[in-house]
Amino acid sequence: MVRALLGGTKTQTRRALRQPAGIERNRFGQPGDLLWVRETFFAYGRWTTRYNPAKQRDEWAFVDMTRACGHIWRYAADEGPGADPQARRDADAAPCWHKRSALFMPRAASRILLRIVDVRI
Question: From CA 33, how far away is CA 45, in angstroms rounded?
Fold first, then answer.
């Protein structure tokens, strides 16, 4: 859908909404609100482990070094370079480009803002 947004062919989004009668607030936003779009992207960085006291074990964590190294994020919807072939989740690996799910996109990496113009239930 990101390609459709960038191409101008996507103009609306529908969401299923269960809302009791009498409640006016929509959890998806009101007209005039801005939404930022998350998309699959590539970040420059490395994987490391850190201890999670709640789970009492080490967990993998990605260290995003994109801005710190003077790079800008890359996007999967573009036809540019993707992840490095040597990209792997290894504690001693050198930083390189890793493919990241939209779920983990930081707000600063978002390149698309959408303004809500109408909400209908």
Answer: 32
- The pLDDT tens digits of the residues spanning 52-93 come to 999 999 999 999 999 999 999 999 888 777 778 778 888 778
Q: How far apart are CA 121 and CA 119, in angstroms?
A: 7
Question: Tokens standing for 115?
Answer: 């303004």
Residues 6+ apart with CB under 8 A from 111: 37, 75
Q: Which residues contact 7 (CB under 8 A, 6 or more apart)?
A: none
Across the range 103-117, mean pLDDT stands at: 92
Residues 6+ apart with CB under 8 A from 11: none
Prediction pTM value: 0.78
Q: Enumerate the domain spans of the chain.
A: 39-106
